[in-house]
């Protein structure tokens, strides 16, 4: 059903894998009947990483986020039509948790972690999920489902060589420490508001420099880099 709607990747995680989620951000805190979590992704075009202007990257991100949200709504309705109770999760905004002092926002569910639990890849030191076939050029969506299903295995491949830290060194504001992003440092570049009021993504260096940006095994895609 998900691939019919145009998703590039999908997987299922059982609720038990979220046992260590912070209080308030566990799927059960969002929808108490959750038994399994469907996580899916649409890929972004890779060549935008190499454009000199920030507009193509900003536009592609905005479009794919809207597309993932549209797919989540369609999936949710289709599951309901089959009698399966479910709740959709936004791909990005909105969220309620915001620390003004730290300029730190927290989505109701970490889709990167949900994607790991659903077998879609592993987290890199740049804090992005890396999938073996699609690299880090993915936008995620999720549906919380009130039913248990046979779920996917967690990915076993390695994504970051121990000696690699190119993404950390490439961040112009030192916002990365290998496990988290300092949003206060990153936000002025990744969500830059121009004089016209447009919010532009002025930096994507940590995504671009990763040798696995296009996927671990995709030599065909690597030609685009
Ligand atoms: S988007 Fe830019 S500023 Fe933000 S963490 Fe990545 S490299 Fe650093
Ligand atoms: S640049 Fe290197 S350390 Fe950073 S995410 Fe990619 S493989 Fe991992």
Which key terms come to mind for this protein?
alpha+beta; 7 helices; binds iron/sulfur cluster; 10 strands; 26% helix; 225 residues
Describe the protein's topology.
Layout lengths: L8 E6 L12 H4 L5 E8 L11 H27 L4 E4 L7 E3 L4 E3 L4 H7 L4 E2 L5 E2 L7 E8 L20 H5 L12 H8 L1 E2 L5 E2 L4 H4 L10 H4 L3
Antiparallel strand pairs: 1-2, 2-8, 3-8, 4-5, 6-7, 9-10
The chain binds iron/sulfur cluster (SF4) (2 copies).
Structure commentary:
The protein has helices spanning 27-30, 55-81, 111-117, 166-170, 183-190, 205-208, 219-222; strands at residues 9-14, 36-43, 86-89, 97-99, 104-106, 122-123, 129-130, 138-145, 192-193, 199-200. It has one domain (3-217). The strands form four sheets. A four-stranded antiparallel β-sheet has the order 1-2-8-3, sandwiched between helices. The chain is built from seven helices and ten strands. It is globular, with a radius of gyration of 17 Å. The site of one iron/sulfur cluster (SF4) has 12 residues, from α4. One iron/sulfur cluster (SF4) binds next to α4.
Number of helical segments with 4 or more residues: 7
- Indicate how many domains the architecture comprises: 1
Strand content of the residues, in percent?
A: 15-25%
Strand order of the largest sheet: 1-2-8-3
Low-confidence stretches: none
**Rough outline:** globular
Listing every helix as H and every strand as E from the N terminus to the C terminus, the arrangement reads EHEHEEEHEEEHHEEHH
* Each distinct ligand: iron/sulfur cluster
Helix content: 25-40%
Secondary-structure class: alpha+beta
């Amino acid at each position: 059903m998900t691939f019919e709607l145009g998703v590039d990747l999908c997987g299922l995680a059982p609720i038990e894998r979220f046992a260590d989620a912070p209080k308030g951000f566990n799927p059960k805190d969002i929808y108490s009947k959750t038994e399994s979590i469907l996580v899916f992704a649409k890929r972004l075009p890779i060549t935008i990483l190499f454009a000199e202007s920030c507009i193509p990257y900003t536009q592609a991100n905005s479009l794919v986020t809207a597309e993932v949200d549209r797919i989540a709504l369609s999936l949710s309705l289709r599951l309901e039509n089959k009698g399966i109770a479910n709740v959709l999760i936004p791909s990005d905004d909105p969220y309620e948790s915001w620390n003004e002092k730290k300029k730190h926002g927290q989505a109701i569910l970490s889709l990167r972690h949900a994607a790991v639990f659903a077998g879609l890849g592993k987290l890199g030191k740049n804090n992005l999920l890396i999938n073996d076939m699609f690299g880090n050029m993915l936008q995620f969506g999720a549906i919380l489902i009130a039913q248990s299903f046979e779920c996917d295995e967690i990915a076993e491949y390695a994504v970051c060589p121990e000696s690699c830290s190119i993404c950390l060194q490439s961040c112009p504001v030192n916002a990365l420490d290998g496990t988290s992003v300092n949003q206060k440092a990153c936000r002025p570049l990744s969500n830059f508001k121009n004089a016209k009021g447009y919010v532009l993504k002025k930096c994507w260096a940590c995504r671009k420099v990763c040798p696995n940006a296009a996927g671990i095994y995709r030599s065909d895609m690597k030609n685009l880099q």
